[in-house]
Amino acid sequence: MESQSPDSDASVDESLFALLLDLGIPEAAARRDEDEAQGSDVNLLPSRHHKMVFVVNMELSMGTGKVGHAAIGLFQLVHEKPSQRGMINQWDEHGAKKVVLQGVNTDQLLELHALALSLELPTYLVQDAGRTQVPAGSQTVLAIIGEEELVNQVTGQLKLLN
Fold this sequence. Notes:
Blueprint: H1 14-22, H2 27-31, H3 34-38, E1 50-57, H4 65-79, H5 85-93, E2 97-103, H6 106-118, E3 123-127, E4 139-147, H7 148-155
Parallel strand pairs: 1-2
Antiparallel strand pairs: 1-4, 3-4
C-alpha cells in the first residue's frame, strides 16, 4: 500500500488545488474535505462585488433611453460568452449595482473603452443608428461590467449623471 504524507489528500485534484491557491484561498481551506466544507459556515471563496457602469457622451443632445441600448447590448454580449456568465450571476447576487456617469465627449469614451479592454473588462460601446436623436455612427454610451475595483480604475474619476 502506498503511503501518503499527512499534508496530501488522494481526493485533491492538484490542478484545482493550484487554482484555489491562485485565487487567494488559504491552503488549509483549499484542502478541506468536501463534507467538512459543506457543514462549515466559512465561505471559502472571496466575495467579488461587481458593478455595471454606463458612461454617457455628454457632448451629444440625447435622451436617457440610450442607456437602455447599452444595458441590453452589454448583457447580451456577456451572456453569449460562457466564461463570463458567472460574472452576471455574481453581479446580480450582490445587488446588481448600476451607475450612470458623465463622459465629456466621444474621445473620452474611446479612451475609457480602450482602458477597460486592456483590463479585460467586458464592454459595449453603442454606435447609434441615427434614426432618432443623433447622427448615425455617434458613440452615445459606453457600458462596462466587472469587479468593482477594476471598473473603478476605468471610471472612478467621472461624475454621476444627474
